[in-house]
């Protein structure tokens, strides 16, 4: 973990309520895809944990959805500096991916898949990505994944773009060696059941500190109590205990 | 410039103590800075058995602070002694404050007697004020008779300085403070969190799965300051002040209200370097307010 000051380079909407922000600062503690940063915002007591979409040198990219007071405020910033804790969470382990890993992102679970896809493609893997949304106006980053060299499948619940239905409707006909997922809990639960291989899934919880001190985000797993912010947010398929 | 204070016969290099439940067993923070700069720290509340705590969500933000309903998650006293304290020892080389909680007098006694045998524990802070567990914790701390009974029972099993941690969720905190003083407490620490609630307007349900939680953070500072001052005037034993302390200035205020040492809680969760920065700021702030020795200002509010 590192606490440092980042300067905002850009902050622009990708859809009606999803924003992409790029920042410049010390990214040296971000070592894996699937980690998150925790951002201090003026007037808010707690920091806001946001997943890392990409890191390139000293440029950090985050993509976030406006869901409350904190993210609404974040969406208004176009310049200035932010106090950010980086290098939080365990992130995805690419070692067990096999030759043809499948990456599945749902809604704002899509961003962490970007850096993961980049890393896996860099390792010479054949990467396929399923991006799940409710409707076509919510779709983002389709072309960016394609440009990395990934095979991209989009699903929308209403069928307005790509495959009609849920991400689980897209995985049925695919063969893959391992899977990585991030998205809403019902999606993760469905994938846990529908997936043919082992995999890693990233979870969300309301956090206090984001670095393991307060025990606010603990969940029970088959291998003991785990802090979503510290031992997580990425869990192995085999250790997840659904409640 | 003299920052050291004496708490129940043990000298602290400075009065800063990270509060229980915000600092784990120290080693998470030792990755960030040398935690031996602290006066000491109070480790995570310890019970007899392993506890998962309450269901999530157990954190909710509020203006100027947060609600928590963690509910005393900890590995239980035996594993604290066999697993956590050896790890702590590698990074912290001063007497540490053990924090104990329980659901019955028997449990408090058993946990305290086990911790009494651990050499590097300097003080035992007995939490009779946890608002997030049912049938224990705070129920001992809201009645002067119960608070006195717990104190009396744990007093019998340890010679180590006993610090009783008090709840602000009472009509008259001085009554509880006097009750524990008369049963042998060496010090009191206050305030634990204030019971609070938040509601999600979309679902009309409480944000916390436990419905209520303990409110802490900078917003509670004036409430804590007043209670510390009232208790300071009501008892002869030292008072450890806490509640919303966020800066070196707050530390001075807390000491002027009557605190011998100052615990810092929620601020550690927002800024993991908070205690280190406050310790570094203290000499500058002392100079600004013409304080040469911190012990000179304890209870010095006019």
Task: Describe it.
The complex is a heterodimer of chains A (243) and B (302). With 243 residues, chain A is of the alpha/beta class. Chain A has three domains: 2-88, Translation factors (Elongation Factor Tu (Ef-tu), domain 3, Beta Barrel); 95-191, Nucleotide-binding domain of ferredoxin-NADP reductase (FNR) module (Rossmann fold); 203-243, Dihydroorotate dehydrogenase, electron transfer subunit (Dihydroorotate dehydrogenase B (pyrk subunit), domain 3, Ribbon). Chain A has helices at 69-76, 111-122, 142-148, 167-171, 185-194; strands at 2-13, 18-24, 36-39, 48-56, 59-65, 81-88, 101-106, 128-133, 151-156, 163-164, 178-182, 199-202, 218-221, 224-227, 234-236. In chain A, the strands form three sheets. In chain A, strands 10-9-8-7-11-12-15 form a seven-stranded mixed β-sheet, sandwiched between helices. A six-stranded antiparallel β-barrel of chain A has the order 1-2-5-4-3-6. In chain A, β4 (48-56) and β5 form a beta hairpin. With 302 residues, chain B is of the alpha/beta class. Chain B has one domain (5-297): TIM Barrel (Alpha-Beta Barrel). Chain B is built from ten helices and 15 strands. Chain B has helices at residues 27-30, 77-89, 105-116, 138-141, 144-155, 173-182, 221-234, 248-257, 267-270, 274-288, and strands spanning 5-7, 10-12, 16-18, 59-62, 65-68, 96-100, 121-127, 162-165, 187-190, 194-197, 199-200, 205-206, 212-216, 239-241, 259-264. In chain B, the strands form four sheets. A seven-stranded parallel β-sheet of chain B has the order 3-15-14-9-8-7-6, with helices on one face. A four-stranded antiparallel β-sheet of chain B has the order 4-5-13-10, with no helix packed on it. A two-stranded antiparallel ribbon of chain B has the order 1-2. In chain B, a hairpin with a 2-residue loop joins β4 and β5. In chain B, α6 crosses α7. The radius of gyration of chain B is 18 Å and the shape is globular. Chain A binds chain B through residues 1, 3, 40, 44-47, 85, 205-209, 211-220, 225, and chain B through 21-24, 28-29, 31-32, 44, 52-53, 56-66, 68, 70, 73, 207, 217-218, 266, 268-273.
């Amino acid at each position: 973990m590192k606490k440092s000051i980042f300067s905002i380079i850009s902050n622009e909407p990708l859809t009606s309520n999803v924003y992409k922000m790029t920042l410049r600062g010390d990214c040296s503690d971000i070592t894996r895809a699937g980690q998150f940063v925790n951002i201090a915002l003026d007037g808010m007591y707690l920091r806001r944990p946001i997943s890392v979409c990409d890191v390139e040198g000293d440029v950090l990219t985050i993509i976030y959805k406006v869901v409350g007071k904190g993210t609404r405020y974040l969406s208004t910033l176009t310049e200035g500096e932010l106090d950010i804790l980086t290098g939080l969470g365990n992130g995805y382990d690419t070692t067990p991916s096999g030759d043809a890993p499948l990456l599945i992102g749902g809604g704002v679970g899509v961003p962490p898949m970007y850096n993961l896809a980049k890393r896996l493609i860099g390792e010479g893997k054949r990467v396929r990505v399923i991006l799940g949304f409710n409707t076509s106006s919510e779709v983002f980053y389709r072309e960016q994944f394609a440009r990395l060299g990934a095979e991209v499948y989009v699903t929308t619940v209403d069928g307005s773009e790509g495959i009609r239905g849920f991400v689980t409707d897209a995985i049925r006909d695919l063969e893959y060696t391992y899977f990585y997922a991030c998205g809403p809990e019902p999606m993760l639960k469905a994938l846990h059941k529908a997936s043919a291989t082992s995999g890693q899934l990233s979870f969300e919880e309301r956090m206090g500190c984001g670095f393991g001190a307060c025990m606010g985000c603990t969940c029970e797993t088959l291998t003991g109590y785990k802090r979503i912010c510290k031992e997580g947010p990425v869990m192995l398929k085999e250790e997840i205990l659904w409640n | 410039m003299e920052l050291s204070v004496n708490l129940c016969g043990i000298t602290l290099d400075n009065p800063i103590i990270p509060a229980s439940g915000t600092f784990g067993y120290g080693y998470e923070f030792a990755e960030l800075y040398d935690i031996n700069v602290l006066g000491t720290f109070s480790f995570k509340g310890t019970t007899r058995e392993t506890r998962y705590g309450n269901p999530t969500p157990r954190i909710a933000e509020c203006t100027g602070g947060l609600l928590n309903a963690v509910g005393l998650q900890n590995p239980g006293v035996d594993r604290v002694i066999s697993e956590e304290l050896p790890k702590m020892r590698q990074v912290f080389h001063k007497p540490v404050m053990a924090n104990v909680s329980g659901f019955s007098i028997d449990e408090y006694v058993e946990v305290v007697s086990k911790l009494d045998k651990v050499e590097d524990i300097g003080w035992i802070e007995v939490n009779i004020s946890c608002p997030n567990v049912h049938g224990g914790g705070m129920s001992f701390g809201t009645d002067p008779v119960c608070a006195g009974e717990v104190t009396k029972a744990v007093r019998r099993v340890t010679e180590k300085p006993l610090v009783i941690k008090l709840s602000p969720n009472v009509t008259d905190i001085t009554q509880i403070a006097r009750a524990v003083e008369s049963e042998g407490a060496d010090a009191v620490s206050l305030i634990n969190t204030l019971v609070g609630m938040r509601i999600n307007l979309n679902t009309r349900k409480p944000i916390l799965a436990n419905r209520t939680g303990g409110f802490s953070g900078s917003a509670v500072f004036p409430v804590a300051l007043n209670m510390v001052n009232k208790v300071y005037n009501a008892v002869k034993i030292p008072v450890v002040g806490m509640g919303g302390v966020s800066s070196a200035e707050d530390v001075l205020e807390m000491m002027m209200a009557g605190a011998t040492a100052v615990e810092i809680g929620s601020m550690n969760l927002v800024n993991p370097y908070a205690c280190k920065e406050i310790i570094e700021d203290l000499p500058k702030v002392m100079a600004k307010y013409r304080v040469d020795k911190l012990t000179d200002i304890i209870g010095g509010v006019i």
